[in-house]
Amino acid sequence: MASIKQVQVTFDCAEPERVARFWCEVLGYVVPPPPEGFADWDDYDRTLPPERQGAAFACADPSGVGPRLFFQRVPEGKVVKNRVHLDVRVATGLVGEERLAVLEAECARLVALGATCERLLVADEYNESCIVMQDVEGNEFCLD
Predict the structure, then answer these.
(1) Same domain, yes or no, for 67 and 108?
(2) How far is 116 from 137, CA to CA, in rounded Å?
(3) Domain-ending residue, one of 73, 95, 119
(4) pLDDT digit string (tens) for 33-85?
(5) Residues in contact with 22: Cβ distance below 8 Å, sequence separation at least 6, in sequence order
(6) Average pLDDT along the chain
(7) In which band, very low, low, confident or very high, does the pLDDT at 120 lie, cut at 50, 70 and 90?
(8) Spatial contact of 143 and 131, defined as CB atoms under 8 Å apart
């Protein structure tokens, strides 16, 4: 039986490049180089039929460890809560006030990039605190 070697996370969205560049900033990811023979992605995009121009964009972990993120344009808008979401792990191992301070600082940074802070989930007897957020197109994610 074959094993899975890599995972790509795909986002449906209205503006693939805008959402991809937001996630590059959140995660420290980079835009991969364009296909051979093209100076940049805009040059490549202009070779596509008009209906495919701007229809997709990607970003990748520069270390090659994390999954590639792929963003594809879809005609419909977001309607309901995501069934799958990313947890951006900025406060791993921290607890209490120290954890809250790190979460709140990262929340402020991401809000400045266009994210929305939805709510703080305060620690209880089972879980540490986290912050529920939305990216620039309303996709939910958590700061954990």
Answers:
(1) no
(2) 10
(3) 73
(4) 999 999 999 999 999 999 999 999 999 999 999 999 999 999 888 888 887 88
(5) 113, 114, 115, 135, 136
(6) 93
(7) very high
(8) yes
| Interval 92-105 mean pLDDT | 95
Contact 143, 119 (CB under 8 A): no
Handedness of CA 85, 83, 78, 45 (dihedral sign): positive
Question: Mean pLDDT, to the nearest integer, of 14-32?
Answer: 97
**Distance of alpha carbon 120 from alpha carbon 102, whole angstroms:** 13
Order the strands of the 140-143 sheet from edge to edge. Answer: 86-88, 140-143, 130-134, 116-121
Fill in the DSSP letter of residue 97.
Answer: H
Considering the domain architecture, whether residues 41 and 97 belong to the same structural domain is answered as: no
| CA neighbor of 133 nearest in space, from 142, 124, 125 | 142
Within 10 angstroms of residue 122's Cβ, the number of other Cβ atoms is: 10
For residue 100 the two structure tokens come to 């809250």
